[in-house]
Amino acid sequence: MKIAVSGKGGVGKTFIAGTLASLLVKAGQKVIAIDADPSPNLAVTLGLSPDESAGIVPIAENEQLIRQKTGTEFSGIFRLTFTVNDIIDNYTVPTPSGVNLIVMGTIRSMGAGCMCAANSVIKALLRHLVVERNELVILDMEAGIEHLGRGTAEHVDILIVVTDATLKSLDIARSICNIAMKSNIARIGLVGNRITDPRQEDVVRLFAERNRLKIFATIPYDQQVAEAGITGVAVDEKSSLAIPAIRILADVLMKTDGA
Ligand SMILES: Nc1ncnc2c1ncn2[C@@H]1O[C@H](COP(=O)(O)OP(=O)(O)OP(=O)(O)O)[C@@H](O)[C@H]1O
Ligand SMILES: [Mg+2]
Predict the structure, then answer these.
(1) Which entry of 64, 73, 210, 229 is 20 to 30 Å from 184 by CA?
(2) Could you tell me which of 106, 143, 140, 191 has the C-alpha nearest to residue 8?
(3) CA 59, CA 65: separation in Å to the nearest integer?
(4) How does pLDDT run across 134-153, given as a tens digit for each residue?
(5) Cβ atoms within 10 A of the Cβ of 132, count?
(6) Which numbered atom of ligand 1 lies nearest the CA of 10?
(7) Protein residue with least CA distance to atom 9, ligand 1
């Protein structure tokens, strides 16, 4: 199963993607998490220290790897066919959560000058992870699914669009869903995050009804999670308000009856 997590900046994508990935490992799944955000920070949510996280070289910035994969003897000309399965073996980072992490780095639109070679490696790698691997793959995305490119996006099984109760994040959630609906993704749904009270929950529910969108789960505001965002200290599962809600989300997603 391939799950992509998107939504407005700062809405909680990384926290949800990382926690979901960790919970699915605990439930016996083999999980690869992909950090496809230009400023990656999924590693900390998966239990690595901020220093360890900072030490990970994103694939797009690994010049030696990019050159080895795409280089030819002619300057400015690069190879378009290369193997990528070995990149998974050599560059995924094991994390204390049991999730294997792969940090992509910035994915630019094609034609963005000298980034082409790095871009083609990332696109091929994403395609391999989403289309050809058997592991459960969770993608923490920058915004929408456009970066995935055709041929990859349509192999995503579930798109989680994270939103809080603000107009702006709901508006972005709507645009992401509208684009995603054209891409054949089987299950698209909202996750309402950082919900502080019933009124905020109602706002998200009403929005979903009006736009005929499904809500996979709502996750309460959790002071511990907010604090973890500041200190980098892991959230204590036992006293967390948000983690049980993400466990419910995991159960909903693992049901394969399309509910
Ligand atoms: N349910 C929650 N309760 C309280 N704080 C939360 C909750 N979910 C996320 N946060 C906090 O909100 C901040 C943003 O979360 P996160 O980094 O996961 O968002 P993001 O969507 O990945 O952001 P970006 O777009 O910058 O990648 C973090 O400090 C995180 O700890
Ligand atoms: Mg993030």
Answers:
(1) 210
(2) 143
(3) 8
(4) 999 999 987 666 667 667 77
(5) 10
(6) 23
(7) 12
Q: Is residue 259 part of a domain?
A: no
Residue 253: φ, ψ to 5°: -70, -35
Residue 202 lies in a domain: yes
Question: What tens digit of pLDDT does each residue of 175-223 get?
Answer: 999 988 888 888 999 999 999 999 999 999 999 999 999 999 999 999 9
Map tokens 């204390």 to a residue.
Answer: 96
Domain total of the chain: 1
**pTM (global) more than 0.85:** yes
| Closest C-alpha to ligand 1, atom 23 | 10
Ligand with an atom nearest the CA of residue 218: 1
Among 16, 67, 20, residue whose Cα is nearest residue 37: 16
Q: Whose CA is nearest to atom 19 of ligand 1?
A: 12
On whether residue 142 sits in a domain, the answer given is: yes
User: Is-contact 162 6, C-beta < 8 A?
Assistant: yes
What CATH number does the domain containing 167 carry?
Answer: 3.40.50.300
The answer to whether residue 187 is domain-embedded is yes
For strand 93-94 and strand 100-103, is the pairing parallel, antiparallel, or unpaired? antiparallel
CA distance 132 to 206: 38
* DSSP characters over 68-106: HHHB-SSTT-B-S----HHHHHHH-EE-TTS-EEEE---
Q: What is the DSSP letter of 234?
A: P
Closest CA to 34 of 91, 101, 93, 92: 101
